[in-house]
Automatic annotation (TrEMBL):
Superkingdom, taxonomy of origin: Eukaryota
Cross-referenced InterPro entries: DM9_repeat (IPR006616), Methyltransf_FA (IPR022041)
Species: Acyrthosiphon pisum
Database matches in Pfam families: DM9, Methyltransf_FA
Name listed for the protein in its UniProt record: Farnesoic acid O-methyl transferase domain-containing protein
Length: 454
């Protein structure tokens, strides 16, 4: 069962352990539903706090370590309701934290921290005249009868990790709604009297994939599985072994999953949440570093230097219109041999690494199939790093998390050769490529280098 928590009108958090980089929950409250994400089971830094429906149920915010002003404050009139349970999700990783509404993929509130906190516990509380009734949806237990009906839940992870004990026929459906409706993908585990497993699309036969899996399930012993999806590719793992995969030529956004047991079987399900990191991206060992270099010398002009510190920890410096802060990191060179610098900029709710071209007065970031010019941006400074070769979505150990997609996926700084240039862009692990902005387009590269901090 999901975790049920009742909170009084109090300043005290009720803490529970976390196993994943996300939290899904519903809350019924008139105002001021607060969530703390911490390293220990008490209300002490380091921590994040998310305030939902504060200021008389008119605003929401993100705060770090009890410090004001809040990192983010957004208008959210009537976001909470004392008579109705409202659903939300919180995701974090690589310094990014995003807050969204159940059933919506994009966060309505997010912030990029310069450091990444080790979040091991969550706490909830209500106050300022409000009480709360909470249902924490991760770590769910579901019992299924011998039935053809699926039990549905919302999911926004891009993967699902679960255990199930059943004699045969443990079925999972991935769908766009909380009911069976096209398009949908079914994963049939331990079918045909626990001898085979399959992937089926829109209930159509023949199956898209059909493999022998003798004795995959067990009536009295939970067996662990992971299903992972990205860009239409569905991968199914038993423990750490891949059972099978299938690519949908017309991928759709998966927002719900359903589980059932049938053909004489009943099941006990434990939905753990998102998959482990090993299923999200390929991690490779870092080879011997090589110096950062480019074919062109650092440019004094075009572009102009900002006054400011010339040494210190790695940080992102705000700049605009071609400005180059002190100790800006050269990342490559253009086809004209102009020095390019590592930078990033916001776009449509995302924070995206790209290339600063001083003579153009902008940073170009790859997004939506095109290169997008940004006059306001941040430049990476004081970075003692190396470039490490990688390919097909690999992220070397020590890679610098430098942004996020609009859905909260961490992005990394990458670069690659294209049309006589060495161009800086973003590595997006779920897409298995490095995207670089060039010639008005977002160019995908399978072979690239990733910036690693040493």
């Amino acid at each position: 069962m999901a975790t049920e928590i009742t909170t009084a009108d109090s300043q005290d958090y009720k803490f529970n352990p976390l196993n994943f980089g996300s939290l899904h929950f519903t809350v019924k409250a008139s105002n001021d539903a607060h969530i703390a994400l911490t390293a220990t089971a008490d209300n002490k830094p380091p921590k994040y706090e998310i305030f939902l429906g504060g200021w008389g149920n008119t605003k929401s915010s993100i705060r770090k370590n009890n410090e004001e002003p809040d990192k983010v404050i957004v208008d959210t009139p009537k976001i909470l309701n004392n008579g109705e349970a409202r659903g939300f999700w919180i995701k974090w990783g690589g310094g990014f934290i995003g807050v969204g509404k159940q059933g919506e993929e994009k966060p309505f509130m997010s912030w990029q921290d310069e450091e990444s906190l080790n979040v091991l516990f969550y706490g909830v509380r209500s106050g300022w005249g409000s009480t709360g009734v909470w249902t924490i949806e991760d770590n769910i237990y579901i019992n299924t009868e011998d039935s053809k009906e699926f039990i549905f839940r919302a999911i926004l992870h891009g993967s699902i990790s679960f255990s199930v004990d059943s004699a045969n026929d443990a079925h999972i459906v991935l769908a766009t709604k909380d009911k069976e409706s096209e398009p949908m993908v079914e994963v049939l585990l331990g079918g045909w009297k626990n001898t085979a497993s399959a992937i089926r699309y829109n209930k159509q036969t023949p199956d898209k994939v059909h493999v022998d899996t003798p004795q995959l399930l067990c009536k009295d012993t939970p067996k662990k599985f992971v299903i992972f999806w990205r860009d239409g590719v569905i991968e199914v793992f038993s423990e750490k072994t891949k059972l099978f995969e299938w690519k949908d030529s017309s991928p759709f956004i998966i927002s719900h999953y359903g589980v059932r047991t049938c053909w004489g079987a009943v099941g006990n399900w434990h939905i753990h949440g998102a998959a482990d990191d090993q299923f999200k991206s390929k991690i490779v060992a870092t080879p011997k570093p090589k110096p950062l270099k480019g074919k062109a010398p650092p440019a004094a002009s075009p572009g102009w230097n900002l006054d400011g510190p010339s040494s210190g920890p790695v940080h992102w410096v705000h700049a605009s219109n071609g400005q180059i802060p002190p100790n800006a990191l050269p990342g490559g060179f253009d086809a004209t041999n102009e020095q390019l610098y590592v930078a990033r900029a916001e776009h449509n709710g995302a924070l995206i690494p790209g290339k600063l071209v001083p003579s153009h007065g902008v940073v170009y970031i790859p997004w939506g199939g095109i290169e997008n010019p940004k006059e306001n941006y941040e430049v990476l400074c004081n970075c003692n790093g190396t470039w490490v070769k990688a390919n097909n979505g690999e992220i070397p150990v020590g890679a610098l998390s430098s942004g996020h997609t609009e859905d909260g996926e961490p992005l990394f700084v990458g670069r690659g050769e294209h049309n006589g240039s060495l161009t800086v862009g973003k590595v997006q692990p779920s897409h298995s490529v490095c995207y670089v902005p060039y010639g008005g387009e977002e160019v995908p590269l399978n072979d690239y280098e990733v910036l690693v901090v040493v």
